[in-house]
Structures are given as C-alpha cells and as structure tokens.
Amino acid sequence: MARLQKSDIIIMIPARMASTRLPDKPLADIHGLPMIVHVWKRSIEANVGRVVVATDSEEVFDTVLSHGGEVVMTSSSHLSGSDRIFEALEIIDPEKKVAVIINVQGDLPTIEPESIQASLIPLNNPDVDLSTLVAEIKIEEERANPNVVKMIGSPTSARTFKALYFTRATAPYGDGPLYHHIGLYAWRRDALEKFVALKPSILELREKLEQLRALEAGMRIDAVLVDTVPLGVDTEADLQRARTILANKSE
Known about the structure:
Elements: E1 9-15, E2 29-30, E3 33-34, H1 35-46, E4 50-55, H2 58-66, E5 70-73, H3 81-92, E6 100-103, H4 113-118, E7 130-136, E8 150-155, E9 160-167, E10 179-188, H5 189-197, H6 202-207, H7 211-216, E11 221-225, H8 236-250
Parallel strand pairs: 1-4, 1-6, 4-5, 7-11
Antiparallel strand pairs: 2-3, 6-10, 7-10, 8-9, 8-10, 9-11
C-alpha cells in the first residue's frame, strides 16, 4: 500500500449541542476557549491532514469559524458521530479524494496530538478497515467499571492488536493486562461508507458499543497502545478536571 499523504487524510470532529448531562457542552469554557476549539487545536497540532468540525448547531458553526477553523453544517437527525462525519465528508469531498477519515470526538479537549498520529499506524496494513486506540488499565477499580470499555485483542506487535471484541465486562479472564478502549477511530473511506449503511447489530445494542457493528459485519479493527487516556467530558466535574489538566500542561 502506498504511504498516506496529508492530502489523503482528514480529521473530522463531530459536535452537537444536545448533551443532557452538560448543556451546551461544545461551547463550555476552558481557560477562555470553547471546548470544541481546544479539540480543533489539538487536531491541528497532530499535523496529519485537514481538520473539519461537523455540527448541527449554528452556535458551534459560528464559534469554530470565528477561531479560524473549518466547519460544516449537518443534519440534526443523526444518531451517531459516524453518521454525522460521513454526511460532512460527502458535502466537502464529493469527488472522494480523501482516503482516510479520523473521527476525533468533540468532547476530548485533552487528546494528545501524538495519539491522533498513532491511530494511523495500523492502516499501513491493507487488511485493516479501521483503527482505534487503547491504553493499559492501571487503576484497579476500572477493571470492573462498565463505563470503562475494554478491548480484547491479539497482539500484532509490541504496541498493536487485532481487536477481537469490545465489552463493558471485565475481560479477558485471568492474569495479564486489561486495555481501556479510547473512542477515536481512523477509517478507510470505503469502510466508513459500509458502516453507516449497516443497521445496528445485536451485540452493539446489547453492549451499547457502536464498534461491535463493524466487527459483526466482518470488518477488521486494529488498535494501537498509547500511554494516556484523554478525558471525555460528560459532566460538570469532568469539565473541571479538564480545566485542571490543561492548566497544568500550560505551566
């Protein structure tokens, strides 16, 4: 497979305002900047390709534009970020020149640019349809926490895995590390197109994990081990933690 060029890659950041636990989440202030702008800036710093925010909110649209970002308006009817970024992709790249789409969630203001870069590593293997990130679970309580999604996979190198399953349960059984799945994905374009055309799968609905739809459809997901888990902001307490983390980084 030919080496990917920056022109082949786009980072898409889906953002919606309909969060129930943290109203107006994308615009939440973190040291003078809205959260969506922090995510956009981290994505720009990754320096792997074009960065576009996909939103259904005029407020988010105007905010991203005012900070110099590129943004696309999408339908408000999407049930997932994958659907939203696919619509945005079709709008901005109808000629299908983009080969790889990295989906960076809009509520990850502490994401490391190096982690975004790492997500591309498995795509050097043409058999891989999409890739994602994992980190080793170090906190004992997280091993049994259903909110910490675990990846079960077979190692393909010291820091990469072929994903076999994702679960909220404590798995796999026995001695050894457990891996926390981080919901960032690098998609081949044809894989994303196939995925959004599929109906939700049985295991996806049972575990409430969208990536199981891809596995059940026979798609190959590989994962890369990274050193840090970015903070997903869902509550006011998470927002305060993000402010603390980013304040410490700027010191």
